[in-house]
Structure formats: structure tokens, C-alpha cells
Design a protein that fits this description.
Layout (H helix, E strand, L loop, with lengths): L27 H16 L3 H16 L18 H13 L3 H8 L1 H10 L6 H9 L5 H6 L7 H8 L1 H5 L2 E2 H18 L4 E4 L1 H4 L4 E2 L2 E6 L9 H12 L2 E7 L20 E10 L22 E10 L5 H9 L2 H15 L1 E3 L4 E3 L4 E3 L2 E2 L9 E2 L1
Parallel strand pairs: 4-7
Antiparallel strand pairs: 1-3, 2-4, 5-6, 6-7, 8-9, 9-10, 11-12
The protein binds 2'-deoxyguanosine-5'-triphosphate and magnesium ion.
The site of magnesium ion (MG) has 5 residues, from helix 11.
EC number: 2.7.7.31
GO molecular function, one term: DNA-directed DNA polymerase activity
Family: Belongs to the DNA polymerase type-X family.
């Protein structure tokens, strides 16, 4: 262990990928307010202000101490006037009147409800809001609305999907995914990514990255997996997106661009052991057959060719902000372009390869 160095605000990088941040957040009362502000700007499609608050939240999550006076943020990056105003008010009043206003704002409240449904984004929310619709009850009552297959599933399994996925549930689903994938490709590498790989205890979904280190390629793997789940009655919803990756494709400069891997957005039926409370529950009216013994869980499966696995793992591990900053860092500080498929060196005009040395290990070891 190295000795603790004195904290120097001016040395803090503006890029989250250059800061070592733990899950232990000492500045939650600030970052919660920032995230509300950012979400409201996202709903207004004001990307610049949204990112300003997300970046500030990321910096305060990194700070090893709680901010108690304005002096504490002196010299830190990403502390613009809008951000400082919110911090100052929270220091003085204990809360932010702006964040409170947002929470009480009719448009924000509607967008928050609408976007909590799987398959509903800002665009759809905007459309519904303009139609005068305000709550999920309004949406369900309006029979003239044409919902997508995804949104129908979103409403059908709403209660399960809004309740967080626990680590235990993630582990249970992980077993199912591994077993199914390995029936078709015994050597396949199945890795949990997203928030759970970062050590989070809960998530909104479970993300899996699948690759096959061997020479065998199987373009049908994803289809076989979901077909088997269908047969087993485990699949509640699935949407397979085919890969659009072209060989010789240049990495994308767009910091928020989606990648071109084959992937599947699914909802799985996770069977849960029924809690036997018969000795406490003497009511004879409860028909145990009607007690739901499963939970709908959002699962993303991503298939990456082995040569691109390291980049895919980096991108899908997140967080969103970490990924954005990695790409910005690559472009502005290294004159390179990074996406979920490759790292491109603009000076040498070549695509760099990453060799995965020990694919058998869960975490892997990478060398560029
Ligand atoms: P969660 O599931 O809400 O607990 O949190 P995460 O971090 O698992 O987020 P999730 O599942 O939405 O996505 C996992 C990671 O994959 C995320 O941290 C960044 C990446 N990712 C997901 N969607 C996109 C996208 O549209 N564009 C880019 N560039 N990356 C994405
Ligand atoms: Mg996730």
C-alpha cells in the first residue's frame, strides 16, 4: 500500500477514466441533486447541460471526503457556475431548491414515469406528453395508442422490471445463461458486464458479453439460445439485433454511439423458490397456485468476435460516464479513436489489437 498523498484539487483529471473512484460516495446529497438536474436536461434533450451535471457528479463521487464548504471544490474540474450554484445552496440550506422544483415539475414527473417503462425513451415520452397524457394510467387507458412489442412487454412486466435486480438474482441468471450458451458452445466465455462487473449490488438489468476463443464461429448461437429458452418457457420477450459490423470499419468518433455487435434485449422468467409461510398463514382462501413464483428480469446478451472481446468488455463494463470519458481521452489526449470494437491510432493509421492472454480467468488479463 502506498502512503496517502495530500489531496491536490488541481491535479484531479477532468476525465473519469483517469480517476480512481470507489462505490463509496461521500457526496451523495450533491450527486443525487446533480443527477436529478441531469435527467431533467436529458428529458429536454439539452445534452450539454445534462453532461455538465453528470461530469460534476462523477467528480464528486471520486472525492475522498464530503464537501462542506465552497473551498473544498476549489480547483476541481467540471465545476461550472450552474453546478456551483447547486453546491452552494446545498451547503447553506441542506437541499437544492432547483432539484426540488424539478421533482415537482409536471413534465419531469410524466417523463420519469413514461421512461420507467421498458421500450419508452425520451422521444416517445415527448409524443405522449404533447398528446396531453400525463401518467401511466393515462397511457393504459388510451386504447388508440399504438404500442411497440417492446413497450407492451414493458407494461406487462412493469412491476418486476422497475424493482431492482439483486446480485443474487444476477448470479442465478448468470448460471442459466452460462449453461445454455455452453450447451451449444462449450468453450464460450460468458462474462457479466455492466454495473454488476463494477461491483454494484443492484442493477436495472443484467448485461452479458459472450465470445468464443476457439476457431469455431457460430453466427446462430444467439438464436439457438433464445429458441431453447422459448421451449423451456423461460423467455418472456426478446429482440435480436443483427450485427452491422463491417470488416475494415473505422472506430466511431461518436462518444455515445451504440456499437454494431449482434445483441439481444430480452426479458427472462426467473423462477424463485416459493416462500412457505403456510404455518403462519391460516387463511384458506389463498390458492397457492395463484401465488406468482417468478420474476421478470431484463437481460442483455452481446456477442463479440474474440479479437474485439477486450474492447467490448471495456465498453460494456461502463459506467456510461467512464466510457464517454475514455473515448474523449483517447481522442483529445492520445490522438486515437476508441469504440467498442477497436482502438485506432490516427498517427500510425492502424487499428491496434488487444491480446487476451488468459481467457479462462473471469477477469482476464489484457495487454495492448
Ligand atoms: P444498470 O444496468 O442501470 O444498473 O447500470 P449499467 O451500468 O449496467 O448500465 P446499462 O445496463 O445501461 O449498460 C451497461 C454498459 O453498457 C453501460 O455502462 C455503457 C454501455 N452501454 C449501454 N448502452 C449503451 C449505448 O447506447 N451506447 C454506449 N456507448 N454504451 C452503452
Ligand atoms: Mg446493466
Amino acid at each position: 500500500e502506498s502512503e496517502a498523498l495530500p489531496f491536490v484539487a488541481s491535479k484531479v483529471s477532468q476525465y473519469s477514466c483517469q480517476r480512481k473512484t470507489t462505490l463509496n460516495n461521500c457526496n451523495k446529497k450533491f450527486t443525487d441533486a446533480f443527477e436529478i438536474m441531469a435527467e431533467n436536461y436529458e428529458f429536454k434533450e439539452n445534452e450539454i447541460f445534462c453532461l455538465e451535471f453528470l461530469r460534476a457528479a462523477s467528480v464528486l463521487k471520486f472525492l475522498p471526503f464530503p464537501v462542506i464548504r465552497m473551498k473544498d471544490i476549489q480547483g476541481l474540474p467540471c465545476m461550472g457556475d450552474r453546478v456551483r450554484d447547486v453546491i452552494e445552496e446545498i451547503i447553506e440550506e441542506g437541499e437544492s431548491s432547483r432539484a426540488k422544483e424539478v421533482l415537482n415539475d409536471e413534465r419531469y414527473k410524466s417523463f420519469k414515469q413514461f421512461t420507467s417503462v421498458f421500450g419508452v425513451g425520451v422521444k416517445t415520452s415527448e409524443k405522449w406528453y404533447r398528446m396531453g397524457l400525463r401518467t401511466l394510467e393515462d397511457i393504459k387507458a388510451d386504447k388508440s395508442l399504438k404500442l411497440s412489442k417492446m413497450q407492451k412487454a414493458g407494461f406487462l412486466y412493469y412491476e418486476d422490471l422497475v424493482s431492482c435486480v439483486s446480485k443474487a438474482e444476477a448470479d442465478a441468471v448468470s448460471l442459466i445463461v452460462r449453461n445454455t450458451v455452453c450447451t451449444f458452445l462449450p468453450d464460450a466465455l460468458v462474462t457479466i458486464t455492466g454495473g454488476f462487473r463494477r461491483g454494484k449490488k443492484t442493477g436495472h438489468d443484467i448485461d452479458f458479453l459472450i465470445t468464443n476463443p476457439g476457431p469455431r464461429e457460430d453466427d446462430d448461437l444467439l438464436h439457438k439460445v433464445v429458441d431453447l429458452w422459448k421451449k423451456q418457457g423461460l423467455l418472456l420477450y426478446c429482440d435480436i439485433i443483427e450485427s452491422t459490423f463491417l470488416k475494415e470499419q473505422m472506430p466511431s468518433r461518436k462518444v455515445d454511439a451504440m456499437d454494431s455487435f449482434q445483441k439481444c434485449f430480452a426479458i427472462l422468467k426467473l423462477c424463485q423458490p416459493r416462500v412457505d409461510n403456510s404455518c403462519y398463514n391460516t387463511s384458506k382462501n389463498i390458492d397457492m397456485a395463484e401465488v406468482k413464483d417468478w420474476k421478470a428480469i431484463r437481460v442483455d446478451l452481446i456477442i463479440a468476435p474474440f479479437e474485439q472481446y477486450a474492447f467490448a468488455l471495456l465498453g460494456w463494463t461502463g459506467s456510461r460516464q467512464f466510457g464517454r470519458d475514455l473515448r474523449r481521452y483517447a481522442i483529445h489526449e492520445k490522438k486515437m479513436i476508441l469504440d467498442n470494437h477497436a482502438l485506432y491510432d490516427r498517427k500510425k493509421t492502424l487499428v491496434l489489437l488487444v491480446r487476451v492472454e488468459h481467457p479462462c480467468h473471469e477477469e482476464g488479463h489484457y495487454s495492448v
